[in-house]
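Known limitations

Structure tokens in this collection are predictions and should be treated as such. Users comparing against experimental data should check residue numbering before alignment. To illustrate the layout, the record for WD40-like Beta Propeller Repeat is reproduced below. The input appears on top and the generated tokens appear beneath it.
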Amino acid sequence: MRSRARDVLIRGGVAAGMVTAAVFAGAGAWAETGSAARAGIEAGTRTAGAAGVRVGAVPVEGEEERVLFRFEDERITESSGLAVSPAHEDVYYTHNDSEAGPVFFAVGGDGRTRATFTLRGAAARDWEGMAASTDPETGRGVLWFADIGDNFEGAWPDISVYRVAEPASLRDAALPAVRYRFRYEDGGHNAEGIMVHPRTGRLYIVSKEFSGSVYEAPKRLRTGRANILRRVGPAPIMATDAAYAPDGSSFVIRTYFSATVYSAPGEQLAKVAMPQLEQAESIAYTADGTALLTGTEGAGSPVHRIPLPEEVLRAAAPTPTPEPSTAPEPSTAPEPSTGTEAAGGGTAAADDRGDAGVPTGAVALWLAVAAGATGVIALIARRTR
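Generated tokens:
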């Protein structure tokens, strides 16, 4: 749960980080570039028949970054997740950080709330992100809410993600949700990024750490036990959100200062400059896949639209069919289907922490500077008591 003390520490840490940005720049570049992934996420095959996807599209000439809308609802004060509705045109979903409970909002392109929804039987320990996808079997929209924040790096025995069928009508309602529990194969992590592959329905979590990672969920999710998350690649320093392109050809990871687009873990396509925001928290692709949307916390906060670089859009060529996963999955007796399993396969990368995105020397440099920044954070905390 977010407290005033936590806010102070977060903002103090960001302030201290800004002071030492020049030092961190080298480490950040290493982290966001990563090394070539030894195995990729299932990319799916991009086809011209994909609904709402413009294959080979390029940005409109002269198009620039702009504010798409601002949240007008006074209840939306800490927008932490953002997703484009798969079913409703010009509708966007968001939710507040933990303290507001298991509630999300459907917001129109004018910034006005169209409906408010509550997840029945769900908890909101530390909601940090959301994703929208289409069920590969039914074609119906699916919303995912990630209760994955863990500021103590493993204090919680497991984390949760809630799956909800997208509401057919935009009227206030309480919706049934399916809860999936997860554990990391290598111990607890703080995380804020969640993304779901649009072709396979497979779920991924991106950790928020100095040396972050992309974790892959099992292709078949179970409700009767904790699902194991396996590391498949590096992630940038302090990732705050992630999202898949509508056609599955790329994914983006957001940090406080920039965004990086990848074709697979560690395989960078482009860095994308982000607008200066108070506390960058969310990112998503537009429905046509030609631009990114990013948001921040705060009352009346804006959602910005940033056109994707031409090299990203031109790189969206048909991708090879993924090979079956070589990672062993737990051997257990079959469970009855819940109707929520995600289909798909992939190749899991070896868990080599040296490939986590930051060289050892850079990590040492980061820690040395962070030690000095701790004094700044402590001073800010004392002055706000």
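For this record: The CA atoms of residues 294 and 340 lie 28 Å apart. The domain at 37-356 is CATH 2.120.10 (Neuraminidase). Please report discrepancies through the issue tracker.
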